[in-house]
Amino acid sequence: MSRSLIRLRATIRDTFRTLEVPISPRFTPAKKYTYRTNVTNAAAGSQTLNSTNPALSFPCLDAREEKTATLRGRSLDTGPEPSYTSGDHLKHHSSEALLLDWGGALAQFDIAYETWGRLNESKSNVILLHTGLSASSHAHSTESNPKPGWWEKFIGPGAPLDTEKYFVICTNVIGGCYGSTGPSSRDPANGEVYATRFPILTIQDMVRAQFRLLDHLKIDKLFASVGASMGGMQSLAAGVLFPERVGRIATISGCARSHPYSIALRHTQRQVLMMDANWNRGFYYNSIPPHTGMKLAREIATVTYRSGPEWEQRFGRRRADPSKPPALCPDFLIETYLDHAGEKFCLEYDANSLLYVSKAMDLFDLGAANQTRTANLRQENESNRSDRQGISCSLTLPDEPYEEQQEVPSLSNPIDIKETSTPQDLVAGLQVLNKHPTLVLGVASDSLFPAWQQREIADVLRAAGNRSVTHVELGEDVSLFGHDTFLLDLEHIGGSLKRFLA
Amino acid sequence: MSRSLIRLRATIRDTFRTLEVPISPRFTPAKKYTYRTNVTNAAAGSQTLNSTNPALSFPCLDAREEKTATLRGRSLDTGPEPSYTSGDHLKHHSSEALLLDWGGALAQFDIAYETWGRLNESKSNVILLHTGLSASSHAHSTESNPKPGWWEKFIGPGAPLDTEKYFVICTNVIGGCYGSTGPSSRDPANGEVYATRFPILTIQDMVRAQFRLLDHLKIDKLFASVGASMGGMQSLAAGVLFPERVGRIATISGCARSHPYSIALRHTQRQVLMMDANWNRGFYYNSIPPHTGMKLAREIATVTYRSGPEWEQRFGRRRADPSKPPALCPDFLIETYLDHAGEKFCLEYDANSLLYVSKAMDLFDLGAANQTRTANLRQENESNRSDRQGISCSLTLPDEPYEEQQEVPSLSNPIDIKETSTPQDLVAGLQVLNKHPTLVLGVASDSLFPAWQQREIADVLRAAGNRSVTHVELGEDVSLFGHDTFLLDLEHIGGSLKRFLA
User: Where is this region: Disordered (chains A, B) (predicted)?
Assistant: First the structure.
């Protein structure tokens, strides 16, 4: 860790050197600047040698402008936007329309996926692994793409997702940009990029698309549905939508419904992105992508992914270059770390995918009231759509069983219900999972999906009658890595998962 | 509370109505849109009726553009920027230069202040009240400015800061924009607005300016130095800089040094502001102010000022208008709340003030190593400056006693010290306060200045030998208002303060 810090620090210094930005000579201003107190009304805003103090320099803005210029200079044939691929993967094309929860539709769609291990003859050893917000299907290296995946150490022979035993499938979510249909894909209706004509998505929509893939692979039932973060939402949602097709569920650092603080944190990310003029209301695909907004959004996200105590240990109050005077641009080591995280991400992921997938997370709510509302809306949209020529036959009927709604307290107008008033709404919503062995894993230092949300899942499942709930909470003595613990802690996250699946 | 929510919701609805933004008819798209799967290569980015789904609308961007247009339309005589005044206040002009910790200087400066109660004959009943980041000197209404102040209920006859007993002084910090010299002031050296030619400030610089005011008022010694948030930093710093001139100290939701997580949170705010093109590297005073960046910064700040559990109770998952389809613009009630908070603030405070004062908070560190470094730097700058004509006589000699440095472990190169390694550095730094009665107040639900930081202050003072430390921590059963508790909780914050001062 300290070695990578040293590298980071060196990179920062090199950046300053490369840019050749004049750094304010703040340490010896007296020799260069003199007071003149009687001059007034000089042209405001212009630089003058006679100011009391020198103007600050802004290497972070210089770097931003340089990046914009570089992107503007790219060939218009290839388009200035980066291509969002994470390497070689499999792809399933579904030519049947996918009706979405909020009334939109995908007339057809692709779903990118990768697999590890071997499907047994009875097709009973399948683990569907769900990803976090910005991840691709590349959870582990493959023959055709040897690059390490985002859960490289968690998958493999003898690993928690043991490829000697299981056939592991990981997909890129619809709405994403790593091979599955998303806002950067072309709308088959008119050949144009969807951009913000892409329909609003839900976590359940993503799961329905995944089960289309399972249909195609003729896999009736999953051994387990596993995921962390947004994937922890999906792994639960899969069980709720297809209770007969899911054997067991592992949900790590996830929740049963998003709470307002995490909505607020995602809101600020979406807002900074949407306020980047280059975002252009989503229509940037032939132009400069909103790299500044993406960088800022990722910096905010990075703050929510880690924890204060970790940074206290790792960065403390160290400045990137203590020999320089303080600056408004990144200065403390923690700032250069965030800057680096944002910079690394800003062209690696599609901005519109970030907006739609982030919004889907906000909308996530497995409570009965929300399920009822969605079911009614889907039914309405379905009958609207079935009136239309050429489309009625390709409609997907909702797969989810809504029987559990009879156990919901009578909801004359579900929209008006106070969703936070009591977890009874969640108990009713998760009733269908009252027999599924479920592992619920939480991390005390997580501020984005705080540990009370995982306790809520466990409590709700138990209240629904489920006697096979394993709830594990990693204390701050075990992990200070906050939300990101699921990516880093092979021993405790991986260990719990392995024991649960065994 | 629910009444204000209803009002907020009504305001949002009115806003939507006023803007007359076409809202996507997401609930009945089937009647308006048809699939056409064979059209390709239509002009990308253009709107077409034939897309599978309608384009989303963006009322938040419409509102932003409207605001920019309004600001552009303002008379150039008065300047498009707002005037940052909080009403009538007193002002002290110091014509002596103020040498700053990081080598800059203010050749002269104003400090705005207000007072309540009466100064007694022995001038022994003075309480200096320090503000948070963005507050003015208007802590309480006055005859000449009857508008309620930011601590209206905490000051007055019989109130915690009892004006029957105490003479309360509150100043606007230098660097601010409410009457004290800051980046929006004119540099006497050339008559131009400082903008980002304003020098880097520290909390201690602000305190030194305050003590200039006390000198002017011929107040030798404070009965108490009191403050919350950034004011909690200042109230401690006042004691460290002028131990003989401060009687007792109350520091509420403050810290002895900033930690990396709070630096990170402020970093993201500064970054979104600086990336607003209208910020223009600080030179926006004759142009459109960076209202978008300010709004975004305030939204992020607002997230850090409150707590998840409060929002869970207050907003839950309620949407601003459940009859509308989900939107990428503010949608959930928590989002409209943040949007409103940002909107309200974006023209009320100077953007450069936010940057400089926020940076001063990051730089705050009362550890001995940092004090030594600063002392050396000040000495160096002082001798540089004393070489110069016409300025040597107006220099301010550092007032702080550096005797405690002898108790610091030998620091051959203080810049290289690991500042986080041990609180011994803080124990040495706060040694000078080993006799001052001190109240340290913290709030368990505070994520910006977490409760461990106040425990740290208390522990460090006790380790330094102080036997008059009162440490109070308000649990989540008492307050869920997070960092903002100090503004809201008259009973517990005010009550503890009253008992301490009595």
Answer: 70-89
